[in-house]
Amino acid sequence: DAGITQSPRYKITETGRQVTLMCHQTWSHSYMFWYRQDLGHGLRLIYYSAAADITDKGEVPDGYVVSRSKTENFPLTLESATRSQTSVYFCASNAGGPENIQYFGAGTRLSVL
Amino acid sequence: QKEVEQDPGPLSVPEGAIVSLNCTYSNSAFQYFMWYRQYSRKGPELLMYTYSSGNKEDGRFTAQVDKSSKYISLFIRDSQPSDSATYLCAMSAGSGNTPLVFGKGTRLSVIA
After folding, report:
1. Testing the interface with A: which of B7, B91, B97, B98 to mutate, by most A Cβ within 10 A?
2. In the structure, what pLDDT confidence band is assigned to residue A101 with cuts at 50, 70 and 90?
């Protein structure tokens, strides 16, 4: 299916465990983004990437690691999950045109117990 | 002061009402303005896009940007229960990978 897909859709883990959230897009968009969405905070940017092997920190990068070895994939890893990382995570992509329009995946709901 | 301020609501209106949703911002460099709609347990989807100042209309939806006041609005005419969602404003100063700055979203309920 064309578009941007995230997996898993739901994840429960324990504190201290490593968790990887997957993001895959079929549009060959250059730019990809990871956000977290929390009540009272809205969407906050974690990391973004302009191309394969190019990544930059966003507003809330601590505790997260990203990689981008292929244009279509942009996984987000929580190296040692904490309860404060319980959130809904959204991946987005952007073709890089002047409009700067981002297209979002359906999200991953993560609970850290 | 946050870069983008948006009243979180919730806002509840009867079916057929005109809805006005608003955001204010502080960064005068913003020139790309968007409204996203997010249904419960779904990802945000682009609803309206406006570059610089002015109005844009698409069916029942009208987006307005007033850069002199640093104020953007989304109007929904003849609101429907299917419009019940959270509406997020977003804006950026540049294109490409310039990060979008989002408002916190306004939750709207349209009651039949």
Report:
1. B97
2. confident
